[in-house]
Each structure stands twice: as C-alpha cells, then as structure tokens.
C-alpha cells in the first residue's frame, strides 16, 4: 500500500533532512514535522505532470543538500531548529484515485496521530481530500480550519465525469464533515470558474473566499488578518493548503491550470510565513507543481521555498515561545533574532 523512498526519481529527502519510515512511527518519534510525498496527478483536468512534483520540490535548490537552511529573515533554521524528517512517497497510482487516496489518508492519519505535523508534497490538488481527512481523523473531526491558497475554488461536484479529482477536494471535505464550510478560508481566487450553482453551494456552506480583486483593493495583509481570525474561532488547529497556481503564471508557469493575475512569489512567501508564525499549523500541503511544464525550475523553486518558509516560521514560533521574544518583520536583519530585546 505504501513504501519507503521515492516513487519517481532518485531517493532523496527534502533538502537532505533525515529519512524516516511512515509505517514505523518509532522512526519519527519526537518529530515536529514529517514530510510525505504524494506523486499523484490522476485528478488533473488539463495539463498533467504533478506526479513529478514531490521529486522537484525536494531537490529544487542551488545550495547543498545538507539538511540545513538558516533563514536570513527569521534568524532560525527550519530544518534543524525543528525536528524534520522525510518519509518518502506514498505509493500512488494515477489511474486509481480511490486506492491512492486511501493509502495517502492512512499515512497522513498515522503521522498526525504521532503528534507531528504532516507536510505533504503533491501531486495535484486531489490529495488535499485525503490530507485534511487524515489530519481531521487524528486531531478532531470538523475541528480543523482550512486556509486554502488557490486560483480556483476546487468545490466542484462532478468534473470530467468523476467525483474525485483536483476540482472537488474542498466540496468532499465539507460534505463529509471533516472540515467546516464556515471555517474554510480561500485566498487568491480569480478567473472564470466555478459557475453560479457552485458559488451558491459555497455560500450555503458559509465559506469565505477572497478573490484577487478584493485582495488588490484591501491588501493581502488585511485579508490574511481577517482569514486567520475566522480560522482561529473555535478550532483545534489549521491546515494550510497551497496550490502553486495561486501565484501568477509568470511566477509559477509549471502547473496544470495556470490563471493570469495571481500573487507574486514574494507575496505568497510572506503570506505563508506569517500564517505559519501566527496560527497553530496541524497539517500542510503544497500541490500542483508540474515539472514538465516548468521553465528554468521557476515553479519548483517557489514550491521548495513555500515549504521552507513554513518550516522557518514554525521554528521561529517555537523559539519565540521559549524566549518570549517576537519576530518583527520591520526590524533590521542583525537585530531580529530569537531572544533579542530591541538591541
Ligand atoms: Mn487547486
Ligand atoms: Mn488551482
């Protein structure tokens, strides 16, 4: 059902962090974060290739694969100040969505039960259905808020003749009760989908979806403040799902369904960093990186840094909880270390 190592490409871990085996929880005891590859693109509606996403996300970096990345901005190392391990890929077959999603869900639930944060490298967005379901089974059914970055709502009912695909995961999660519609925050939507009947269903669920035009007028920081405040009302943790197509195709061309007019890579990294610093993350995924459509590894590098910013912010939150200091994005680099008191 699942195996240790990489399904596609060389057997490498995320930037060289230690390996573990998701089937043997003793290999990741005391881990803060366990990385899981989900090489599945059987739910893609347009350009496929996201099955190669985990491999690309793990290795897209010009620095060494030494398992260390001290952040200039946050003055912590997300790979060593946290206990991060990589469990390799779940074996997923893109022709069999049901079996593949069941296998991924079981692994995510096992990791979440251990107390570690599962961080899943997709794969197309179908994988968020088993990702959030697995976390909700471990943390609390209907108790996990979801913050979802995407150009698309992914709340369709039947797409391309199938109930399971990258156009439906958010509807499946709300229909099952794994996640609450009124604790589901979408950021970055734009373009020409979904149609009015799907928007009506979203409104009935109490979903809050921040379209790019609203973000442009209000500013992303203001929108994130509102999204996090809704997410944190009566919940036991937040799942962060990042579809790389939330970024503008100029900043993330290697993806299945590119939609012009999205976030800059800078804005996306700042947003992920802020969310992972300010709210308790219980699960995360980065999806829809499709290397065959990438150019100069632009999209893979952005996805790699989205993961790294999340780990960095979680590490800084942990360090600040221990020292009582607080990260301030307005401070000069050399003053902005954990434990600093304004020197
Ligand atoms: Mn999506
Ligand atoms: Mn999308």
Descriptive account of the structure:
The model has no long low-confidence stretch (mean pLDDT 95). By secondary structure, this protein is an alpha/beta fold. Helix 4 (169-176) links the parallel strand 4 (145-149) and strand 5 (184-189). The protein has one domain (14-325): Ureohydrolase domain (Arginase, Chain A, 3-Layer(aba) Sandwich). The chain contains 9 helices and 8 strands. Bound molecules: manganese (II) ion (MN) (2 copies). One manganese (II) ion binds at residues 150-152, 243, 245, 257, 288.
Quick description:
The chain is α/β, with parallel strands linked by helices and 343 residues long. It has a single domain (14-325), classed as Arginase, Chain A.
Radius of gyration: 18 Å
Please report the first level of CATH classification, the CATH class. Alpha Beta
The count of β-strands is: 8
Number of domains: 1
Q: Could you say what the CATH architecture is?
A: 3-Layer(aba) Sandwich
Integer average pLDDT: 95
- Tertiary shape: globular
N-to-C SSE series?
EHEHEHEHEHEHHEHEH
- What summary fits the major beta sheet? 8 strands, parallel
| Termini separation | 54 Å
Tally of helical segments: 9
The CATH topology comes to Arginase, Chain A
Low-pLDDT parts are none
Helical content (DSSP H or I, runs of 4+): 25-40%
Give the class from helix and strand content and strand pairing.
Answer: alpha/beta
- The quaternary structure here is single chain
What binds here, in terms of ligands, is: manganese (II) ion
């Amino acid at each position: 059902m699942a195996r240790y190592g990489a399904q596609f490409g060389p057997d490498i871990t995320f930037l060289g962090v230690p390996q573990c085996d998701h089937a043997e929880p003793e290999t990741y005891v005391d881990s803060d974060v366990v990385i899981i590859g989900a090489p599945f693109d059987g739910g893609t509606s347009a350009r496929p290739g996201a099955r190669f996403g985990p491999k690309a996300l793990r290795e897209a970096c010009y620095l060494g694969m030494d398992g260390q990345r001290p952040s200039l901005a946050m003055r912590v190392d997300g790979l060593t100040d946290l206990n991060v391990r990589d469990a390799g890929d779940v074996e997923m077959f893109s022709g069999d969505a049901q079996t593949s999603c069941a296998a991924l869900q079981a692994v995510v639930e096992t990791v979440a039960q251990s107390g570690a944060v599962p961080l899943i490298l997709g794969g197309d967005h179908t994988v968020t259905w088993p990702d959030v379901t697995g976390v909700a089974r471990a943390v609390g059914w209907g108790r996990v808020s979801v913050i979802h970055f995407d150009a698309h709502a992914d709340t369709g009912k039947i797409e391309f003749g199938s109930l399971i695909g990258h156009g439906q995961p958010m509807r499946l999660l709300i229909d099952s009760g794994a996640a609450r519609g009124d604790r589901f925050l979408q950021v970055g939507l734009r373009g020409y989908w979904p149609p009015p009947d799907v928007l009506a269903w979203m409104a009935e669920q109490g979903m809050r979806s921040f379209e790019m035009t609203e973000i442009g007028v209000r500013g992303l920081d203001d929108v994130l403040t509102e999204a996090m405040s809704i997410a944190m009302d009566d919940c036991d943790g937040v799942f962060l799902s990042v579809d790389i197509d939330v970024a503008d195709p100029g900043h993330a061309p290697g993806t299945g369904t590119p939609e012009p007019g999205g976030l800059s890579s800078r804005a996306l990294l700042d947003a992920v960093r802020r969310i992972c610093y300010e709210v308790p993350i219980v699960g995360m995924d980065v999806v829809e990186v499709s290397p065959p459509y990438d150019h100069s590894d632009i999209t893979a590098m952005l996805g790699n840094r989205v993961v790294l910013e999340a780990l960095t912010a979680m590490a800084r939150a942990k360090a600040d909880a221990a020292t009582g200091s607080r990260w301030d994005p307005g401070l000069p680099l050399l003053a902005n270390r954990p434990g600093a008191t304004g020197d």
